[in-house]
Specification:
mainly alpha, about 170 residues, 3 domains
């Protein structure tokens, strides 16, 4: 789903500091955190029954030095691994976020973002050729350029859709 709508909210300096602190504690950018919290509130989702660990986020560049091991069933492991992949996270990063009380957000794949960009390019072409729809003549060079660009966009779209249907790629973080 494309995110092309926006709105703004006025807050005091103190309120902004509180929001920034909450977002930082979740390891998210402020706008991402506000969106996440607002959408959950709109859906009527209640806070977790168990309070999350009150851990500050690790400082940038902090080394992870304490291993932790647990046994999972195959089904538990598969579910955790698939959810981590859907959020473009490693299993460890996914678990660390959950320990802090944050439910990671499923990320839109780069392929889907590229598909949306191709669609926007096609929409942008509309005003260029719109006069031709009303019977106005357009230069032949422009008509050829638009036809070539249209073929390229459709070829790129087909390749992106094929890549998207192949499944998610490896997580990067």
């Amino acid at each position: 789903m494309a995110r092309n709508e926006s709105f703004s909210v006025m807050v005091s300096a103190t309120e902004r500091l509180r929001l920034e602190a909450a977002a930082a504690a979740s390891g998210l950018a402020l706008s991402t955190w506000v969106r996440h919290v607002a959408l959950h509130a709109a859906d009527g989702v209640r806070p977790p029954a168990v309070a999350p660990l009150s851990l500050p986020p690790p400082p940038p560049g902090a080394r992870l030095v304490r291993p932790m091991h647990t046994l999972l069933t195959d089904a538990e492991y598969d579910a955790l691994h698939e959810q981590a992949r859907a959020c473009a996270m490693t299993d460890g990063a996914f678990i660390r976020r959950i320990l802090r009380g944050f439910k990671p957000i499923v990320r839109q794949s780069a392929v889907r973002s590229a598909i949306a960009a191709v669609n926007r390019a096609g929409v942008t072409l509309g005003p260029l050729v719109h006069p031709a729809g009303g019977g106005a003549a357009i230069p032949s060079e422009l008509a050829l350029a638009v036809a070539d660009l249209r073929r390229e966009i459709w070829a790129l779209r087909a390749a992106l859709l094929a890549a998207d249907s192949a499944g998610p790629s490896r997580p990067t973080a």
